[in-house]
Design brief:
alpha+beta; six-stranded antiparallel beta sheet; 40% strand; 18% helix; seven-stranded antiparallel beta sheet
């Protein structure tokens, strides 16, 4: 006959092992679920390289000269990186103070929930600008981002991060849907006078 003490020890071992097994199984499932969620949030729907002549049309420059200012900018290709550089000089003279550029996207954007911009900047603040066929001339969906001088940085946005504006003023517009975007641009303003330089890597629309 098994003594009560031995029986209790056997039961403790059996149920302790069972509890540990359940806990380990739960931990494995939780880790797997977390990994799946992280993977799903980072799946690329379509990545556009700013250097691609197939995905984008030639860049168009638009500075404050259209309003009497004297700011200047240009797009040059960095041969070593094979990436375009948006650079120039912002002047506050004649009530000016901005420089911008814009590409037309030559392909349809798939359904996306976020977008990741990769650039190498100069420590200044820039605007990422999207346009859709629903907007009138000059309006844009804009989101600000800060750069770090000499370092490549990534900036992730969701539709709610963008505000519809025209020349810095809020305007009424339909909610931004990434799948409707047909133009992408960059702008520097906010009275950031002086030289600037922004190397354009890629923009990745993500599911």
């Amino acid at each position: 006959m098994i003594s009560p003490l031995i029986l209790i020890k056997q039961l403790c071992r059996r149920y302790t092992s069972a509890v540990i097994g359940v806990l380990l199984k739960g931990l494995f499932l939780s880790t797997s679920l977390l990994a799946t969620m992280l993977f799903q949030t980072s799946v690329s729907a379509m990545e556009i390289q700013f250097s691609s002549q197939q995905q984008l049309s030639a860049a168009k420059i638009s500075n404050d000269t259209v309003m009497g200012g004297i700011s200047s900018s240009e797009i040059e290709n960095d041969a070593a990186l094979d990436q375009p550089i948006f650079s120039g000089n912002v002047s506050l003279a004649n009530n000016g103070g901005f420089a911008s550029m814009e590409y037309r996207i030559n392909t349809s954007i798939p359904t996306s929930s976020s977008v990741k911009l990769t650039v190498m900047g100069d420590g200044k603040r820039y605007q990422l600008r999207f346009k859709t066929p629903e907007l009138s001339f000059g309006e844009a969906y804009v989101a600000n981002f800060d750069t770090t001088a000499g370092e490549q940085t990534e900036h992730t946005f969701i539709p709610a991060d963008f505000k519809s504006q025209f020349r810095g003023r809020s305007v009424n517009a339909p909610a931004l849907v990434f799948a409707n975007v047909d133009r992408v641009g960059l702008l520097i303003a906010d009275k950031q006078a002086g030289n600037f330089s922004l190397t354009l890597g890629s923009i990745d629309f993500q599911q």
